[in-house]
Amino acid sequence: MGKLDGRTALVTGASRGIGRAVALRLAEEGALVAVHYGGNEAAAADTVATIRNRGGEAFAVRAELGVPGDVDALFAGLAAGLGERPLDILVNNAAIITRTATMEAATPEEFDRLFAVNVRAPFFITQRALRLMPDGGRIVNVSSGATWFATPETVYAMTKGALNVLGRSLAQSAGARGITVNTVSPGITATDMNSWLDDPEAARQVSTMVALGRPGQPADVGDAVAFFASDDARWITGQTVEVNGGLLLGPPVEPPAAAAPVSG
Fold first, then answer.
1. I need a labelling partner for 103 at 20 to 30 A (CA). Which of 3, 80, 229, 242 fits?
2. Active-site residue 156, yes or no?
3. 89 close to 8: Cβ distance less than 8 angstroms
4. Considering the entire predicted model, what is its pTM?
5. Where are the domains of the chain?
6. Tens digits of per-residue pLDDT, 199-238?
7. Which member of 37, 75, 156, 227 is catalytic?
8. Structural class in CATH, domain 8-243
9. Residues whose CB is less than 8 angstroms from the CB of residue 210 and which lie 6 or more positions away in sequence, other chains included
10. Could you write out the DSSP letters of every residue in 129-197?
């Protein structure tokens, strides 16, 4: 039996990357997963098919976030898939990044778009989800290490900082219902958003910055989210956990040379 047997989950931005890994992991533990996507129908269908092929349950829900009516569209699709079942788990993962949204170059349009998708959407998705969620539910927000180290993409980092604040505040207000709210903060993770890691030299340089010696993988984050979604995390709320392999714990170091074999 899985730790989430009989429960339902909505994962936003679940067609690829970290969201896909989260959806696969929650389904592996027995949850019925609503796989939200914004536009990549083929990727969402592949995520659903993969879950079903592994013996899990899932359905896709399309809703473009950051536009008028986005929350209504999302929850209409969710209701069609869940029927009369409640929503037990919400994972706010969907986000966008605009590399040009720096302090020097960001436009008002870029600023508004980033906040609409990365902050406004999860806020009002959560507001609606709380109406469907029974006492003892789970909310997990996916933030970013960009909230604590400097990055040129200032506006993106600001949106993720807002998500951290949302998690702490909501944990306090939802606690009376036994609903836990936690945040996972991935480090440098091999996703489409970080396609520059496809360059072996870039990946090598990142590895020197991480205590565990490699960039993160989506499954690393998916496992952490699954923990917070389970009863194992029943006494943890209002926390932000860095899921980054020990990123920037100290000055970058070269990996040690392999030890010579010992005989005898």
1. 242
2. yes
3. yes
4. 0.92
5. 8-243
6. 788 788 788 888 999 988 999 999 999 999 999 999 999 9
7. 156
8. alpha beta
9. 187, 188, 216, 244, 245, 246, 247
10. HHHHPPTT-EEEEE--GGGTS--S-HHHHHHHHHHHHHHHHHHHHHGGGT-EEEEEEE-SB-SGGGGGG
